[in-house]
What does this fold into?
Amino acid sequence: MRDDNRKAKMMTIGIAVVLILVVCGISVIVHALHKRDSGESGDKLQSDILDYAANGQEQSVMTQDVVNLPEQELPKQGEETPEAVTDGTKEPVQDGGDGADAKAENNGKQPDKTAEGKPGEPAVVVENQKTQAAESIIEEEAKKAANTDNQQTTAKWQKEAGENLSAVQIDLPRQMSEMKGYWEAGNMKAVEDLAYLPRYRAASEKLSGTTKYYYFGDTDANNRPNGTGLAMYTDNQYYYGEWKDGVRSGNGMWIKFYVYDQNAKAKDSRYLQHSYSGMWDNDLPNGEGAEHYDFIDENLEENVEYNRNFIGGFKNGLYHGEIYITNYSKDGNTREWGGTAVNGAWQPLGEKDGKGQYPVIVDKTNPDNYQWMKASENKNQGVSGLISAAK
It folds into this structure.
C-alpha cells in the first residue's frame, strides 16, 4: 500500500515536470517567432521607404528633363552658341524689316558670305506625341475668340497692347505636328494663321539669340534632320522641305512672318512676309529658286515701286546668274525687270551717273529704264535675314 502511494506521487511529479518543460518550450518558440516577424516587418518598412524615396527622386528628374529639355539645350541670350564656338561662325543678321526694305529698293546689304565647311548641329528635335488632340489649334483659338468679350482690335501683324509672350503656354509637339500637316497639304493660309498666333510666336521667341531651331520630321540614326521635316527658328522664321545630314538640302521653302508694335511707323512696317522657295545646299539657297515679298499695302508709299519677286539662280543665299524681277506698287500695278548677278553683285549695264550709281537692272518693256545702285551697295545681294548656322 505504501509502495502504491509512492508510485502515484512519483507519476504526479513527473507529469508536472513534463508539463512545465512543454510550456517553456512553447514560450521559447513563440518568442522566437515574434522576434523574427518583428524584424521582417521593420526591414520591409525600411525597404518600402527607400523604394518610395528612390521612385520619387526618379520621377522628379524625369519630369524636369521632359519639361526643360529645349531650354536646357539653349544658351542664354547674348552668349555664344555652341556652333559659334565650334565652327567659328557668326551670329545671323536679324531682319526686322529695315534690311528687307533696303534690299527691295536696291539699297540693302546681305550678311557676310558663308564660312567654309558645313554648319553645326543646332536642331532641337521635337518628338511626336502618341495621341493628338482631336480639336485643331485653329479651332481652339477660334472658340476662345468667340467666348471672349474683348474683340480683336489689331491686325494679325500687330502685337496686342501689353503682350507678354513669356506667359503664353506652348505645346511644341502639337504645334509642330499641326503646322507640318497643313504645310504637307499645301494649305499655306492655315500655316500663316498658325504662325501669327501668340503660342507659335512665343515658341519662336524662346530661340532668340541663337541659330538653333525646333525640328519635327524625319531623322537619321544620329537623330539629325534627314528626309522631310519642319523647322521653327527665332524671328518667326520657318522652313519646310528636304534635309540631309542635319542641314537644309534639296527642295524646300523658307518663310519669315513679320510682326510689329502697334505704334510702328508705316515706313518701318511695310512687309508682311518674306520667303524663298527652291533648291538648297549646305543650309542655304543654292540652285534655282524664287524669293518673294508680301506687303502691307496700306503702309506702302504712293508712286513708289517695290521689288517683289526675284526668280533665277542662287549661290550660298546670294543672287547668281540671270535674275527675273517683278515689282509692285500700292495701286496694284506691276513691272518686269531683269539683271545678271555674280556672287551677289549685280553686273553693271552701263556707266555710272553723276551720283556714282550704276545701272544694274533693266525694265523688260523699256530698255532705257533702269534701277541704279552705288558700287559700295552692290554686294551680298540675296535673301536677307535668313537664319542659318552656315553664315
